[in-house]
Structures are given as structure tokens and as C-alpha cells.
Amino acid sequence: MEEDLDKNLKLAIFLTAIIFFMELIGGILSNSLALLSDAAHVFMDVVALLLSYGAIKISDRPSNSSMTFGYHRFEIFAALINGVTIILIAVLICYEAYGRIFNPPMVKGAEVVVIATIGLVVNTWAALKLHGHSDLNIKGAYLHVIGDALASVAVIAGAVIIIFTGNYIVDPVLSILIAVMLLYGAFRLVFGSMRILMEFAPKHVDAVTLSREFMAIEGVKGVHDIHIWSICSNIHAMSAHILVDRIHVQQTEVLISEISRMVRDRFNIMHTTLQFECAECAPVEIGHGSTHRESQKMD
């Protein structure tokens, strides 16, 4: 991992964590639910940054006889827990905000402006440091930070309105809007994690499309038992049975190279497992375990 990226990520995590505690304590002292909602949003950013940093670090760890794909799935489990936690927090915010709409308490607008402005400055700095990196995890963290910066702007605007108008209902209304943003991001996180854990095919490719690409390669007579899945958010794998004519092993090596290069370049699939079968040979019954019941029969 690049030294500058490592340093920037660590500093972004540290400063964002400080902002989280500042907004949490400030929200309690100023009685601002909007600031507490923004603190929840910042918490989501802290976890996103930790996931990005952890995913990069863990991906450097070698696989072993037990963890044959390495430790990449750690990212997915952590993201799922993060998403579920944020959903619960957002629901609690909406519940509290609903009661405050009908009986809005006094909010210390000046304190909210100061704390939210500090948060905005830190988030802007973090966004500038993370912008431009090609790693997908870093891009995701960058988008999280941008979203929180926008939420901070909304909190500042709401606090200014409270200072000049004394209309405290602005605070719970903003809280609900921020909670909706949290729910949107959290549900995407949960569904994205579940897709990977349930081994859905990546969104950018499906078995039908991949089968057509295989059939376009010279020497391929047929394809079946295609399986495509994601190990983590940016590492994809596939396996397939390829029908070919009677060819030498050397020729299959050429096909393996061509197919692997195609799926890597076109679909970003880095782990490829191919089983060649002779199209002209007599069919052999092989149990592939395509269903849970069939797999049990093979045991």
C-alpha cells in the first residue's frame, strides 16, 4: 500500500473519530437532534474508513490451507454489521424526531454552528486527501465523507435559521432528512453485503452474457455449469465447464490463457477455474451438486 495513502487514511480515521465524539457530546449538550443525527452519519464514515483501511491491510495477508481465498470476506461481514447498526440508529432518530416535531425543545443554535462547522472543515480535508485514488474501497470512503460534509452543511443552515427565527421545529425536520440519508446508505450496504454472502453474480456480469462470450472464442463448442460470485466487493471469481473437440493438453493451455484474459479484461474476474470436456467423447455422468439435495447424494 502506498505510504501516503496509508498516512492519509490513518489521519482521516483519527480526525473523523474526534468529530464523531465532538458532535455526539455537542448534540447532547446543545439538545440538537440534528447534530446527533450528523454524529450518526459521521460514525458511519468512521466505520467506512476503518473498513477501507482494514480491507487493504487484510488483503495483504497471504491465504493459507484454511482460508484459501484469504481474509477478504472480513470486509463484507463488517459492512453488514455496520449497515444493520446504522438502520437501528436511523429508526431511533426518526422516532425521537417525530415526538419533537409536535413539541420542539429549545436548541442552542450557536453551539451547533461551531461544532458542525468544525466537522465540515475536517470532512472537506478528508475528501481532498482521499480524492483521486483508484482503489474501490477508498472511492467508497470518499463518497461517505462527501455525504457527511453535505449533512454538516444542512445542520449549519438549520442552526442559523434557529438563531435568527427561533423556529426550533427545523431541528427535528433536519434530523429526519439526515436519518433518511442514513437509511438509504445503510440499506444499500446491507443489500450489497447480502448479495455477496448469498453468492449472487456481480451486477456487471451474468451467466448468459459470459456464456455468449465463451462461445465466441475459437475452439469452444459449448459451455455449462457456469458459476460466478464475489469474494469481496472488488474481487470476483468464476468456474465453468468448457466443451471442446479432441485436442492436446497444450491447446487447452492456450484456451485457458485466452479465456482467463477475456474474463479479466472485460469483467474484472481475477480467479478463474475451467474444466475441459470432450464434445465428441461419450458422455460421462458426473454429479455436479447443482442443488443442495444433489450435493447430499454425493456424500
Task: Give a structural overview.
It is built from nine helices and three strands, in the order αααααααββαβα. Helix 1 runs antiparallel to helix 2, helix 2 packs antiparallel against helix 5 and helix 2 runs parallel beside helix 6. The chain folds into two domains: 195 residues, Alpha-lytic protease prodomain-like (Up-down Bundle); 92 residues, Cation efflux protein, cytoplasmic domain (Alpha-Beta Plaits, 2-Layer Sandwich). The protein is mainly alpha-helical and 299 residues long. Strand 1 and strand 2 form a beta hairpin. The two termini are 43 Å apart. Helices cover 67% and strands 10% of the residues. The longest helix is centred in the first third of the chain and has 30 residues.
List strands and helices in order, with pairings.
Layout lengths: L2 H28 L2 H27 L13 H30 L6 H22 L5 H30 L4 H28 L9 H9 L6 E11 L2 E10 L4 H19 L1 E10 L13 H7 L1
Parallel strand pairs: 2-3
Antiparallel strand pairs: 1-2
Helix pairs in contact: 1-2, 1-4, 2-3, 2-5, 2-6, 3-6, 4-5, 5-6
Rounded mean pLDDT is 82
| Tally of strands | 3
Which H/E pattern describes the elements? HHHHHHHEEHEH
Q: What is the H level of CATH, i.e. the homologous superfamily of the largest domain?
A: Cation efflux protein transmembrane domain
In DSSP terms (H or I, runs of 4 or more residues), the helix count works out at 9
Summary keywords:
2 domains, mainly alpha, Alpha-lytic protease prodomain-like, single chain, elongated, Alpha-Beta Plaits, about 65% helix, about 10% strand, disordered C terminus, three-stranded mixed beta sheet, about 300 residues
